């Protein structure tokens, strides 16, 4: 797994562009647990709000930066060229809040730690 770039979108939001992450939920979670200290030390990720809240999104970089299509690309204001957007393909996110603690979001749900320190998965409900 390679980190291609990191962008900050306002207070508390960090976007990490990667070439890939482990496929399984457990692989993604293990990768985060193993690398979160390095992300903080090397890239200052996450950058929490004063109350500690933050979100770190991991996006697949695919074909590189593209121009804004005016539709559904994620664009980064810190890039000053026409090609400053990516196709939205979020593969993992980590959020922390005082109410929920750490929330680890994957494609079909999210994980929270229960009162015994075990991770429990909550599946997204179909629309």
What does this structure look like?
It holds the Pfam family DUF943. This is Enterobacterial putative membrane protein (DUF943). Helix content is 15%, strand content 42%. It is mainly beta. The chain has one domain (3-123). A seven-stranded mixed beta sheet has the order 1-2-3-7-8-9-10, covered by helices on one side. A three-stranded antiparallel beta sheet has the order 4-6-5, with no helix packed on it. 13% of the residues are buried.
Element-by-element helix/strand order: EEHEEEEEEEE
Looking across the biggest beta sheet, what order are the strands in?
1-2-3-7-8-9-10
Strand content: 35-45%
First and last CA, distance: 33 Å
Shape: globular
**Number of domain units:** 1
**How confident overall, as mean pLDDT?**
93
How are the SSEs ordered, and which strands pair?
Blueprint: E1 3-8, E2 13-18, H1 25-43, E3 54-60, E4 66-67, E5 73-75, E6 83-87, E7 90-97, E8 101-106, E9 109-113, E10 119-123
Parallel strand pairs: 2-3
Antiparallel strand pairs: 1-2, 3-7, 4-6, 5-6, 7-8, 8-9, 9-10
InterPro entries: DUF943
Pfam families: DUF943 (PF06092)
Organism: Frateuria aurantia (strain ATCC 33424 / DSM 6220 / KCTC 2777 / LMG 1558 / NBRC 3245 / NCIMB 13370)
